[in-house]
Amino acid sequence: MTRRNGNGRCGGFIGLIVIGLIIYSFFSSSDNNTSKSTSTQRAQPSAKITMQQQIDNAVHVTAVQLHNDYEANEIAANQKYKGKEIVISGIIIDFSKGILGHPQVRLETGLFSGVWIDLEKSQGSIAATLSKGQPINFLGVCRQGPSSLVATIDNGIILQ
After folding, report:
1. Cβ(141)–Cβ(38) under 8 Å?
2. pTM (2 d.p.)
3. What gap in Å lies between CA 104 and CA 64, rounded to an integer?
4. Alpha helix segments (H runs only) across 49-155
5. 114 C-beta neighbours (distance < 10 Å), count
6. Is residue 115 packed enough to be buried (19+ CB in 10 Å), middle (13-18) or exposed (0-12)?
7. Measured between alpha carbons, how far is 8 from 23 in angstroms, rounded to an integer?
8. CB under 8 Å to 31, separation ≥6 — which residues?
9. Do residues 62 and 110 lie in contact, with contact meaning Cβ atoms separated by under 8 Å?
10. Where is average pLDDT lowest: 11-25, 89-103, 142-156?
């Protein structure tokens, strides 16, 4: 006869906690690294150049073109966009709030895809005034292409 001392349940609970901490650290370190590098990219130029110059120096692309470029050749699109400041234009199709509470806006690109713009937290009140179907422009840093059918732009700023 086998005797259990209850450690099986305790071990399972501890395992869940460890998995949760690993997931949390992955997302928080990924977000922190992106935010730090983006903040550094923005902090240095903003001291030397104006917002208009930043916009002029950015890669300009529509949400549809960004999506199409990634669909055609993800390697080439990463070289062109990933980690770079871009001005992206498109039509709003959805709104959300990210894991860390940042407002998000999704731009139309096709049937089951889109480009998610993770806005800076300070953009929340402006995002609240936007509407689905509205054409819009954002300045942000391209994080990834549509490996999961959506591209993501970090630290978005709404351009009016």
Report:
1. yes
2. 0.67
3. 18
4. 51-57, 63-72, 74-81, 124-127
5. 23
6. buried
7. 23
8. 99, 100
9. no
10. 11-25
Instruction: Please say whether the beta carbons of 116 and 94 come within 8 A.
Output: no
Distance CA 28, CA 34 (A): 10
The residue type at 2: T
Beta pairing partners, 113: none
Which residue blocks in 49-158 are alpha helix, DSSP H? 51-57, 63-72, 74-81, 124-127
Residues 83-134 pLDDT 10s = 999 999 999 999 999 888 889 999 999 867 789 999 999 999 999 999 999 9
**Domains, in order of start, for the chain:** 51-159 (2.40.50.140)
**Which two three-digit tokens encode residue 33?**
């690294």
The candidate with the shortest Cα–Cα distance to 143, out of 135, 134, 153, is 153
Whether residue 19 is predicted with pLDDT greater than 70 in this model: the reply is no
Of 121, 125, 130, 129, nearest in space to 156 by CA? 121
Q: Quick one: tokens of 30?
A: 């990924």
